[in-house]
Amino acid sequence: MASATVRLVRDELVGFAKSKVMIVLWVLLPVIAIGGYLLLPSAIPMRGREEGLSASAFMAIVMSSLAGTVAALMVAVDVISEKNRKVYELFVIRPIRPEAIIWAKFVAVFVCVTVACVVSLGLGIVVDLVRGDEVTGAMLYDALQAVLALVGVIALSAGVGVLFGVIAKTILIAVILILYVGQNLAIIPMLPMLIGLLPSALWVALLISAGLTALLLWGSGVLFRRTEY
């Protein structure tokens, strides 16, 4: 059972990493990050933050919106496409739990999109070093917080995508649900920290994101297990 599940996760990781959408992200996200670091000042004035918002935090906000939406759409579209092609009927004879199929898709999308975003933000920081900007401890700490917030958004968005992929009958319905419902949910836990209202609430926001993600995956698994193909 364990080895079959591991192989399933590995296959999903390879499949998503080589997908056309991810290939675009491997190129697009670094371009966005590097361009942002080149154009933005080291500190962006922002109400409620005397020191301003760092370029790292700002780019993480931009990427969280883009990457979160892409992650949710990728996993939802993949689940619905395979349902429509009756792919899951073939898994009945395999020694794995049905819900492991969608959990593997979540892990694959989450890892691929997160790696693409973290690498892109890292390249942006390298740009700062190359052009001679001073990289301080405070800047690195701010960048770490921004990355953690980004990871939380991607995880929650992918969880939303899994749920809507399971319950939606068509890709169009899933896309509408993700764009108008899912993304509002995904960004809520991070808003207080990102806009400076509660700058020390990062861990609270991450715990909320983790809890919501776990709940979404559990609910998706229950619904998927009860679905007839």
Question: Descriptors for this entry?
Answer:
229 residues; mainly alpha; 8 helices; elongated
Number of domains: 1
Principal-axis shape equals: elongated
Radius of gyration: 19 Å
Q: Residue share in helices?
A: over 70%
Mind explaining what this structure looks like?
This protein is mainly alpha-helical and 229 residues long. The chain has one domain. 77% of the residues lie in helices and 4% in strands. It has 8 helices and 2 strands, in the order H-H-E-E-H-H-H-H-H-H. Strands 1-2 form a two-stranded antiparallel ribbon. Helix 5 (137-167) packs parallel to helix 8 (202-226). It is elongated, with a radius of gyration of 19 Å. The model has no long low-confidence stretch (mean pLDDT 78).
